[in-house]
């Protein structure tokens, strides 16, 4: 990884860790968050709760368009996950949430447009009473070992100016639609 890419990943890990510690300490759980770095600033996106696969797909479309429209130089998703190392005493294909060897972690999945991906897991340390105590030392996972539909933030090719303009228009349409639905929901209450 190039020196400037390492610096961006380090920034994302710092933001992700601080965000996770704050929410775990205050709320006891971690809502997912997306961080994107542009040439000028840091963008933070806190999605509503994911109810199903459609919500995740819509969020990822929004994130990918955001990356194109704002020319992100790096991005990361921060989420609470279960991590499992392969074990001989467990059936193959056992979901992490059902594994006896599961470990509760915060995942900060960093990506750089050139295709560099670096998922990092921070083990969640809890007290005997189950409250959040802190985060353990980072564990750098093999980029190919983590599977998630909440990844691949950047397109395979460098977006053109026309691509960026189209992404901006689509983001405006999506944002207007969300605001319209939210206004209707408030009127029903």
Give a verbal description of the structure.
With 189 residues, this protein is α+β, with helices and mostly antiparallel strands. The chain has one domain (3-188). The protein is 37% helix and 23% strand. The chain has 3 helices and 7 strands. It has helices at 3-27, 53-69, 161-188; strands at residues 33-37, 42-45, 74-83, 103-111, 117-126, 132-135, 139-140. Strands 1, 2, 3, 4, 5, 6 and 7 form a 7-stranded antiparallel sheet that branches. A hairpin with a 5-residue loop joins strand 4 (103-111) and strand 5 (117-126). Helix 2 (53-69) crosses helix 3 (161-188). The longest helix is centred in the last third of the chain and has 28 residues, at 161-188.
Entry keywords:
189 residues, 7 strands, disordered C terminus
H/E element string? HEEHEEEEEH
Computed structural class = alpha+beta
Low-confidence stretches: 181-189
Q: What is the CA-CA span between the terminal residues? A: 52 Å
Number of helices, counting only DSSP H or I runs of 4 residues or more:
3
Outline type: globular
Fraction of residues in helices? 25-40%
Please report the total strand number as a whole number: 7
The radius of gyration over CA amounts to 18 Å
Average the pLDDT over all residues and give the rounded result. 83
